[in-house]
Amino acid sequence: GVEIWLKRDDLTGLGLSGNKVRKLDFLLADAQQQQATAIITCGGIQSNHCRATAVACRQLGLRPVLVLRGTPPSGQHLDGNLLLNAMLGAEVRWITPDDYRHRRAAIMEELAAELRSRGERPYIVPEGGSNAVGAMGFVRAGQELSTQLTGLGLDVDAVICATGSGGTLAGLAMSGLRAEVVGVAVCDDRAYFRKIVEDIAAIAEERFNLSLPDTGWDVLEGYQGRGYGLSRPEELRDQATMAEQEGIFLDPVYTGKAWHAISEMVRQDRRALGERVVLWHTGGLFGAFGRGADYHAALAVPFVEE
User: Fold this and answer.
1) Tell me: the pLDDT tens digits for 85-104?
2) Burial annotation 177-186 (CB, 10 A radius, 16+ → b, else e)
3) Would the pLDDT of 301 be above 90?
4) For residues 112 and 124, is the Cβ–Cβ distance under 8 A?
5) Dist. CA 285–CA 27, nearest whole Å
6) Which neighbouring-strand residues pair with 95?
7) Other CB atoms closer than 10 Å to residue 296's CB: what's the count?
8) Residue 230 in contact with residue 289, Cβ under 8 Å?
9) What 3 state SS string does the chain have?
10) Nearest CA to 12 among 298, 283, 237?
11) Does residue 282 contact residue 254 with C-beta atoms inside 8 Å?
């Protein structure tokens, strides 16, 4: 009984795909203006943002340096985004989850100093490309959606996106959309992400004369599940239902969790989100690879045995 539309950022490209591209559009333009030669960024072991950054760097003649949270896989083949990063020749530095959470900014600054000592001109892109410059990509994306909705003669009650670093939500919240903008937290909590959005918006107001409205946007918590990049069987089953009924693949880290949140809320109350909503499909299919065991357990998918 609820009309659900998808904004298909999973179709922005192949290697250079997903919502990260919109942020990189502005970030790497800024890097080029500063005559950067190398880009440093960070993310999880299967980070879509890091892979997209590495692709964009190679297309622009820049050198990608990736700071990844975790340990390098041993005794097995690379897969998913790790394989693509290797094919792109990206330099990878590994740090512990604890260092990532508490010291990643300092570690990237230290790495930048190391590159400068070698004669390079590094440019640091934060986690997920989520700062005021990157968020400009989603200010423009929100305006793009408004134009599309007007062209279709549609009014929507809510625009829903997954929130893992805050930049997508911040940009949409500042874009002037005539709908409630809701970020589904895939990690951390509402207070954490509201502060991130407010911090991004404060810099965007100073640099780009944008403002964050007091109302019309929020963060939905309670659907983080097991944590960032960790899936529950019910989340994977909802993704499989989307694939089976619509032929559309979601990713397990971001849009899969946002879709599970929508599904659960509508199951409990058909009017919880309004009559018509837009789910922002942020892409990230490569993040599903290497998770066969999780999908197998959740879906009872048969495997071919040798």
Assistant:
1) 999 999 999 999 999 999 99
2) bebbbbbbbb
3) no
4) yes
5) 23
6) 69
7) 13
8) no
9) CCEEEEEEHHHCCCCCCCCHHHHHHHHHHHHHHCCCCEEEEEEECCCHHHHHHHHHHHHHCCEEEEEEECCCCCCCCCCHHHHHHHHCCCEEEEECHHHHHHHHHHHHHHHHHHHHHCCCCEEECCHHHCCHHHHHHHHHHHHHHHHHHHHHCCCCCEEEEEECCCHHHHHHHCCCCCCEEEEEECCCCHHHHHHHHHHHHHHHHHHHCCCCCCCCEEEECCCCCCCCCCCCHHHHHHHHHHHHHHCCCCCCCCHHHHHHHHHHHHHHCCCCCCCEEEEEECCCHHHHCCCHHHHHHHHCCCCCCC
10) 283
11) yes
Tokens of 188: 């951390």
Question: Model pTM greater than 0.85?
Answer: yes
Both tokens of 140, joined, read 């423009």
Q: Quote the Cα angle for 28-30-36, to 5°.
A: 75
Active site residues: 47
Confidence band for 80, pLDDT divided at 50, 70 and 90: confident
User: Residue 79 in contact with residue 55, Cβ under 8 Å?
Assistant: no
User: In this structure, which amino acid lies at residue 279?
Assistant: L
